[in-house]
Amino acid sequence: MAGDTMQGSDEVLRQATDKIGVKALAAELKLSPALVYKWCQPFDPEDPDSSGARNPLDRLAQIVHLTGDMDVVNWLCRQAGGFFAPNPEVDVRNFHTDLLVGTQQLVKEFSDMLEEVSRSIADDGAIAVHEATRIRKHWETLKRVAESFVVGSESGLFAARGKK
């Protein structure tokens, strides 16, 4: 994806490990500190001089890629107290909107979701299950529009054009 600045799995693990220390993490996992250190170093299977080792994040990503089954990701997200919400696919070749229209769509969808929340609590100060379902629908639409806007921005679709 254009503008993708995603960290490598080794960097993510290194940052997480730094919070408690390699030795403490290794002890809790009943692994050697050397293995945990290797997980936190870049791994390149094509480079025989690569000092890193394929880490658990790489392995999970490979499982998802090979099986196409998102239940692994969903399970991990639930373990972390959340849920997985995939980004919608945006076809930048068929993306036909300008910055003002894109911004207006984003604000409108946000406003629609807030209006649904307000409507839900207006009558009794609570949100019933059927009202939550409507809120979820607005939320999913907002996420889709927002992601399209961000992808369009990252792809340069809203870049300044030369004045004529």
In short:
With 164 residues, this protein is mainly α.
Topology (elements, then pairings):
Blueprint: H1 9-18, H2 22-29, H3 33-39, H4 56-67, H5 71-79, H6 99-122, H7 129-154
Helix pairs in contact: 2-3, 6-7
Characterise the protein shown here:
The structure is a single chain. The protein folds into 2 domains: 9-79, no CATH class; 92-154. It is 59% helix and 0% strand. It is built from 7 helices and no strands. It has helices at residues 9-18, 22-29, 33-39, 56-67, 71-79, 99-122, 129-154. With 164 residues, the protein is mainly alpha-helical.
Helix content: 55-70%
Report the mean per-residue pLDDT as an integer: 87
Choose one word for the global shape: extended
Q: What structural category arises from helix and sheet content?
A: mainly alpha
H-E order: HHHHHHH
SS elements, strand count: 0
User: Number of folding domains?
Assistant: 2
Number of helices: 7
| pLDDT < 50 runs, ≥5 residues | none
Strand content: under 5%
Key attributes of the depicted protein:
164 residues, mainly alpha
